[in-house]
Amino acid sequence: MELKHLVIREVMKEEEKPAVVADRGGVVTSSTDIASQMVESLNNALARRSTLTHGSFNQENPAGYPFIDAFSQYLESEQTSDAFSTLCDTGLAQLTAAIDAPSARSATGGYVVFSHYTLERYEFLLVALVRNRATISLGDDLTPQQINQLDLDKLHQAAKVNITNFRKGKESYLSFTGTKETGSVTHYFATAFGCTDVVPSKKSTSDLLQAAKDFCTEHGMYDEREQVVEDVVSYLNRQRSEKLTANLPEVEQIFDQYIPPEQAEELSGSFSRFANGERYQVSHEFQPHTHTLNNLTKLKLKSDNWQADLSKKSIGTPGTGNDIEFDEENKQLVIKRLSTRVIEQLRKALAQEE
Question: Which protein family is named in the record (predicted)?
Answer without folding.
Answer: Belongs to the YejK family.
